[in-house]
Amino acid sequence: MRRIGKYAVVLGAALALLAALACGSSGVSQEEFDAVQKELDDTKAAMSGDMVSRDDFESVQNELDDLKAAGAGETMMMEGNRLEAVKQRGKVVCASNNSLAGFGFVDESGNTVGFDVDLCRAVAAAVLGNADAVEFRPTVAAERGPAMQSGDVDIMSRNTTWTTSRDAQWGNFAQTMFYDGQGFMVRKSLGLSGMLDLEDAAVCVQQGTTTELNLQDFINQNNLNISVATFPDNVSANEAYIGEQCDALTTDRSGLVSTRAGLANPDDHVILAGTISEEPLGPVVPHGDEQWYDVVKAVMAMLIYSEAYGITSSSVPTSVTGDTAVDRMFGLEGSFGQESMGLGQTVAQDVIRAVGNFGEIYDRHLTPLGLQREGSRNALWAAAPCNDCPKGGQVYAAPLR
Amino acid sequence: MADIPKALTYRGIPVWRHAVIIQWALQIVSAIIAVSLVAWFFFNIAGSIQERDIPYGFSFLSREYQTPIGEHFLPYESSDSFLYALIVAAVNTIVVAVLGVGLATLLGILIGVARLSSSWILSKLMLAYIEFFRNVPLLVQLLFWFFIVLTLPPVREGYVLFSRIYVNNAGISFPGLVGGNLQAVGVWVGLAAASIALGALVHHLLSWREDRTGKASYPLLAGIAVAAAGGAAAWLVVGSFTGEAPLVISSPEPHGRFGRIAGGVTLRAGLLVLLVGLVIYTSAFIAEIVRAGIQSVGRGQIEASRALGLSGIDSLRQVTFPQALRVIIPPLISQYLNLTKNSSLGGAVGYTDLTNVAITMTQTAPAISIFMLIMLSYLVMSLTWSLIGNLYNRRMRIVGA
């Protein structure tokens, strides 16, 4: 009997350990959480008919909050709190490119710079008042989805095409920063007259991008025979093109312009006319945090409208100008929703002073590459305050009011 | 009657010091811990997948893949399914693994034997080879070979050997047997294999008859004749059904505006670079294994064989090597596994191996599901190597030992 007793003690201890492990991992079960959530929804629905008292509603609301606090998973905690988390951390975590000149790359002095990079800096200026408070996470194309899904990244600004499935799976695309389309670069000496001349060519393409998929569509639609070589990043794809392992390099036209500018003899290469796809490039924020999403969109709006109103980094107003739209944007009068977003009243002043307006950012990074803006889709839609001064571009944002 | 000393009264071992019970208890506790850890891991992943809305499932397998696969040994169209694309990619990996293992073994044995050469220079040269290639990361070596291959002339200025073999930085093309219709090739290969089996059976039966009766029955001749006749008949039958020979000799030729090589068999640069990298890297390890194996054979064996009048080569081939194999094979198999798994770096040099294709697939299908399938595929390949190795090892054991 004594032996069996001891045996049972050992077994019991082991079972207790197992139970502790099982409980420790979940805390509050999804079912329990869902049940209370449903109760809350029911209560809300009932409230509209005045059948439930305010107290009832609040008690359920409290119950739900308690459950949330009890730790129904880390991401649940993050919800609505990314702005707070960023402020506490003192840094914006930004997934960036580090090898695409103009858009995002590391310069000689080791700084990450570029058109996309400046958006992260603008967000940091808006949230933390310091454009340098950014932690860059260099991310290659194929890693982008998992990086966003993990929730560790606050914003990804990295020449990423907005597509519906990415929007559904990766995170929320805030706003198109650059309108692009996929094209081909070839050697001028080949004398090609257009993309359809690529029959029997070898084409180098970067892996894990819409580029690969668009290329297949282009091949299918035009019934072409093209041999495709896939490389994990644009550096090796470029090297293979430079070494003539491929006849053509394909990616977004902006990327081609950027690559071409970096070649030994840019004039020996030509970007074929036309595009084979729509590539609206823009920043992405993780799913599940509306406030943070709004903040990023508002920052984009600040950049775009300060250009429209002709305000540059050196002419940021600090006292009332009399132009209500400008005064509202820079927090001198009225509001465009700063407090609801958890931003300071004069947030636009910090942003524009730190990175300049949209046009300044474009001129700083993309104009030197030869990406003509005037007359392109990437011009502003219209200058303000003029009511009918179309500039013909597609760059536009939610009005700041 | 004197009292029995207390120490001599046997009262049984206390349960907590009973060896059997302690062993069992430890086994049970560790089993419980292991199972709970696995369960915790599994439920944690499953929970996160649900919580973050990460797509999951296997319905994508029957969908059209619609993405190019650069190099493929099975026929592939972009309208083929994900499942078939995975098979195509797995065959790519198997081709590299089998070619790589064969070449690395040959090279490794040569280097291992040369390492033990009495020539000081040869031995030290091999030492340098082994130490260099063993101690530089494989990925670095692959990228090095990638850039080396890029320095070869491009296709339009490439070398032509015997006016049939084309060597350039896109790969090597040579004449070869090419099948037009996969099903026809499959049927013919199946029938040919059946004829060979039939031939072997005839050979076996006739040799048995010859042994028993002493009548000359020409078993080898008859066996080969049966196999050849079967193969030829199958060729004619398959050919008459499809209206063309199952396999035809095809010669490579420059084709189209870009002078890319079409026809024949082409080993593209990505495959060659990967193969060279894997073979050189793995051969350095195999050489050391071979050296260890040879040195494990007692000196007396070698001296005895020399005393019997065997030449150096004969002594190595007939006395040393068969004994060394017993030591060599188990670690050799583990190098085969390494080579197979290391082929997953192929993407870095533009080869469409299983992992490379899988990464591309994550663009349009759930990453977790794909990588579960990929892990399973590598597991099957590795276990197959182990099985082959174990079977061979069993045959090599000392009989009666």
What is the topology?
The complex is a heterodimer of chains A (401) and B (401).
Chain A: H1 2-26, H2 30-48, H3 54-69, H4 74-78, H5 82-89, E1 92-96, E2 99-100, E3 104-106, E4 112-113, H6 115-128, E5 134-138, H7 144-150, E6 155-156, H8 164-169, E7 172-173, E8 178-180, E9 182-187, E10 202-206, H9 210-222, E11 227-231, H10 234-242, E12 248-252, H11 253-261, E13 269-271, E14 279-281, E15 284-285, H12 290-308, H13 324-329, H14 338-341, H15 347-355, H16 358-365
Parallel strand pairs in A: 1-5, 1-6, 10-11, 10-12
Antiparallel strand pairs in A: 2-3, 3-4, 7-15, 8-14, 9-12, 9-13
Helix pairs in contact in A: 2-3, 6-12, 6-15
Chain B: H1 19-51, H2 82-115, H3 120-134, H4 138-150, E1 159-161, E2 165-168, E3 171-174, E4 176-179, H5 182-213, H6 219-242, E5 247-250, E6 253-255, E7 260-262, E8 265-268, H7 269-295, H8 299-307, H9 312-342, H10 354-361, H11 367-396
Antiparallel strand pairs in B: 1-2, 2-3, 3-8, 4-5, 6-7
Helix pairs in contact in B: 2-3, 2-7, 2-10, 3-7, 4-7, 5-6, 7-9, 8-9, 9-11, 10-11
Tally of distinct domains of chain B:
2
Give the beta-strand count of chain B.
8
CATH superfamily of the largest domain in chain B: MetI-like
Low-confidence spans of chain A:
20-29, 46-53, 69-78
Using only C-alpha atoms, the radius of gyration of chain B works out to 29 Å
What is the largest interface, and how many residues per chain? A-B, 61 and 59 residues
CATH topology of the largest domain in chain B: MetI-like fold
